[in-house]
């Protein structure tokens, strides 16, 4: 195997660092046991503690306030 073939294989096998950096984790609370779980957009949604698949999004710390007219 030549150097050019080896470099082509290594480039295609490595995950792009840009794609990994763009995936941010979001916290969810399990609907059954209440444990906090963090998921990225590509993770399978199963609770780490009990395996339940229904989650609730965490509330904002300060809450949201809107002005209505």
TrEMBL record:
Q: Which segment of the chain is annotated as a signal peptide?
A: none
What InterPro entries does the annotation carry?
RNAP_P/RPABC4, RPABC4, RPABC4/Spt4
Which keywords does the record carry? Metal-binding, Nucleus, Zinc
What are the TM regions of this chain, as residue ranges? none
Output the Gene Ontology terms for molecular function.
Answer: DNA binding; DNA-directed RNA polymerase activity; zinc ion binding
Q: Which GO terms describe its biological process?
A: DNA-templated transcription
Cell compartments where the protein resides: Nucleus
Q: Which Pfam families match?
A: Zn_ribbon_RPAB4 (PF03604)
Q: Which domain of life is it from?
A: Eukaryota
One Gene Ontology term, aspect cellular component = RNA polymerase III complex
Q: Which family does it belong to?
A: Belongs to the archaeal Rpo12/eukaryotic RPC10 RNA polymerase subunit family.
Protein name, per record = Uncharacterized protein
Q: Which organism is it from?
A: Stentor coeruleus
